[in-house]
Known about the structure:
By secondary structure, chain A is an all-alpha fold. Helix content of chain A is 71%, strand content 3%. A two-stranded antiparallel sheet of chain A has the order 1-2. Chain B has 6 helices and 10 strands, in the order E-H-E-E-H-E-E-H-E-E-H-E-H-E-E-H. In chain B, a hairpin with a 4-residue loop joins strand 2 (52-59) and strand 3. Chain B is elongated and about 105 Å long.
Amino acid sequence: MAKEVVRYRKATRALHHVHTAAFVVLFLTGLVLFIPQLGFLAQGGWTRLLHRIAAVIFVVAPVLYVLFNWEAAKKGIKEAFTWGAEDLNWLKAAPGYYFFNDESKMPPQGHMNTGQKMWWFIVLVFGALFVLTGIFMWFLKDVLPAASFQWMVFVHDVAFIVTGCMLFVHIYLGVIHPLMTEAWKSITKGTVSAEYAQSHHGKWFKEASKKKPKGA
Amino acid sequence: MATAILYDSTRCTACRACQVACKQWNELEVEETTNRGTYENPPDLSANTRMKIKFTEVPKNVGIDWLFTRRACMHCTDASCVKVCPSGALFYDGRDGFVAYDRDLCTGCGYCVEFCPFDVPRTERNVITGLSTMNKCTFCTTPGLNRIEAGEKPACVTTCPTGALLYDDRDKLVAIGKQRVQTLKTAGSNNANLFGETELNGLHVLYVLEDSPDAYGLPVDPKVPGVAIAWKDVIQPLGWIMGGVTIVGLGLNYLVARQAKIRKEQTVKKEE
Ligand code: HEM
Ligand code: SF4
């Protein structure tokens, strides 16, 4: 069997799946309030109740993860906020790679490539926005001046549009794109082949093979 | 053709028969209240009180002046609540143009509560589950309790003993209202005005007032909140476009990338 490299530990994968499930429920139960033609599905408000249940999971799951995996969480969050010149080069080369399979200009990537980092950054920032505005709309509706509530719905909706579109991109790259052959495996089984790691995350692969292999 | 209700504050004695009639006809529960040192009762609109007479006390040299207003949905032509309602529970009545409400369609989101420039809709909410349903004046068009369809006047108008409430063609009522304002002005009320003729493109509830609207606690220049426009007319259509472009873009990418991959595999094979 070809050599396998650990990419995501079990706890990380579990968080990913639980959070995704919560997000998809939040997305769909939000969508019925966004699309007037689907509004009838929300009659009686059961989708809004579901939205709240999913919201609790959406908040509690990462909090538990951070509490029990403090080191990994710290490392992961740092990753989302570490940007350099390489990232610019990646962005320039990315269209050539993702459309035309031209790998020649792609700079070797760390544990996360620039695109993944962008999504991860959006998840953190917009996740926080969702939680903040959501909590206000949920619990402080009666206390909040109407004008503030209006802005909360507005921001919540902007976050919905941005993350919703990016979610499509994320799922597409993870599951459908012809070149991302092992992305799905990395998040379900936790490992990728040495070959895949080398070509997709060269920098990380080098470091990981020097040290004892250990995913985030 | 639009119809409307005209409320003449100067003819209102605040007997509140209209409040009772509204509750009775619309089968709304009675609320227990406490003495707050005013005849005004109940203190506010609620999920069980769709309309009430509001008392504003203006101090005079001796004693006070009472300014009465009717607190209920104004049935705006440009209704913020209709704009933000996600399920079509609030909609414009096709025949008369006032703002009808189908409680069965309500999701309980409460957006209408936060966006109404007159602070009218009310909900009874469970804070934890968020479950609620809204209530507001339906112009007596609640399905099953539809007086208008049956050729009747709204319950409040039918009951009013002083002629402070009228129900008729809107144009006719505007004319009557203007005439009454003129009479008031002649009698010395310089600030007398007809509220609702042009506000929000015309309200379907008109007020004859003897003082400026803010003296009654009414908004002087009510508007659809800017956020509602930015949200519903800018951000949401943009969201549709972004979503569409994303999906189409990903589809195109798939077609191109798959071709590129196949081509590369073929060249690799040839080299071998
Ligand atoms: C902790 C997280 C969240 C909380 C507490 C929360 C809470 C809320 C609340 C209170 C509302 C107002 C409607 C209602 O009362 O039911 C709402 C609406 C909405 N939420 Fe969330 N939410 C959260 C996360 C999300 C996420 C992750 C998404 C999407 C991916 C989302 C999408 C929406 C949408 C689309 C709406 C409707 C906005 C509209 O009417 O256009 N929410 N949310
Ligand atoms: S007064 Fe308020 S509830 Fe009535 S139609 Fe206007 S915005 Fe809607």
